[in-house]
Amino acid sequence: MTVSNHRLQSAIETLKESGVRITPQRHAVLEFLLTSLNHPTADEIYKALENKFPNMSVATVYNNLRILREIGLVRELTYGDSSSRFDSNTEDHYHIICSECEKIVDFHYPSLNEVESLAEQITGFEVSHHRLELYGKCPECKKTAKQAH
User: Fold this and answer.
1) Distance between CA atoms of 84 and 70, rounded to whole angstroms?
2) Dihedral through CA 134, CA 139, CA 143, CA 148, nearest 10?
3) 96-129, pLDDT tens digit by residue?
4) Residue 65 vs residues 20, 26, 69: alpha-carbon distances, Å
5) CA torsion angle for 51, 53, 54, 55 (degrees, to 10)?
6) What CA–CA distance (Å, rounded) separates 41 from 37?
7) Is the pTM of this model over 0.85?
């Protein structure tokens, strides 16, 4: 069994344990997220699946994403006014984002839990979580920029 098949089977078990019905559309959205490395938006998921499910609406995709998020199978990444992106990697990790094409790439670095503790001590807040994002230009955009000059 491949890693993605194992992750899919594990996610399906989580859905069953949560009492969530596994519709063909929900299965397809989940499978797409688990095999996607680019943190897609709901619209990107919809466009990728619309040929397979011509009667599926964008609202169906959003509803499935909401359920998957509530169960803890995906994380929603919000960035100001732009569309949310969805990440099936729910383990602690950070992101680097291309300021040109907005591609998001995971990178792993030891968790900054001590920052949370220090922030609590200094501010009196009860910290629930943190998110680290780095911004720059991805290799493809750097290459395109060099070719333009």
Assistant:
1) 15
2) -20
3) 999 999 889 998 888 888 999 999 999 999 999 8
4) 13, 9, 6
5) -170
6) 12
7) no
